[in-house]
Amino acid sequence: AQRVTQPEKLLSVFKGAPVELKCNYSYSGSPELFWYVQYSRQRLQLLLRHISRESIKGFTADLNKGETSFHLKKPFAQEEDSAMYYCALHKIQGAQKLVFGQGTRLTINP
Amino acid sequence: GAGVSQSPRYKVAKRGQDVALRCDPISGHVSLFWYQQALGQGPEFLTYFQNEAQLDKSGLPSDRFFAERPEGSVSTLKIQRTQQEDSAVYLCASSLSRTESNQPQHFGDGTRLSIL
Hints:
- The complex is a heterodimer of chains A (110) and B (116).
- Chain A contains no helices and eleven strands.
- Helices cover 0% and strands 44% of the residues of chain A.
- With 116 residues, chain B is mainly β.
């Protein structure tokens, strides 16, 4: 079955420290991976997707098919990065749905 | 509009009552999705529409759950004979996608449903 695993429910780092939010997936086809973010009192929004290979708000994520991972990284965390982060897998066997991980709550301490 | 709009934002119902949740997608968006998010979990897929056609309802947990999008725009998710395990946030998302092209899904604020 297709699955997305985010092993850390909570992650706390200090401002200026590097951040890595882990995401592993289980899917036999060619995956499309996304990171969604939900800031306090805001709606879920797209942060980045692997096909774009872009950096958004200083975050990057590289798809590693060998390790079936799509970890989200930022070299220097900022307080405004505090939020819930969800990794999601798209286009499961041609279906349009997103399969989400359980999410990681990131807290940046001053 | 400014984005996907869902109503009501909060709904409290007694066990056994029927509820209806509304979703207004972004104008022109072909695809519409419903997700259920239990406390402390990620969203889980319920059903998917392309225009008025319900192409995937594999995530609906039981026949008490019913969704429609009769004119290919506004959608309603109806839950009959609600049970406590139906308590969750129900998220609606829409996207431009009408083919296999990769279009992101835009989410609404959700409806928080509490069954007493």
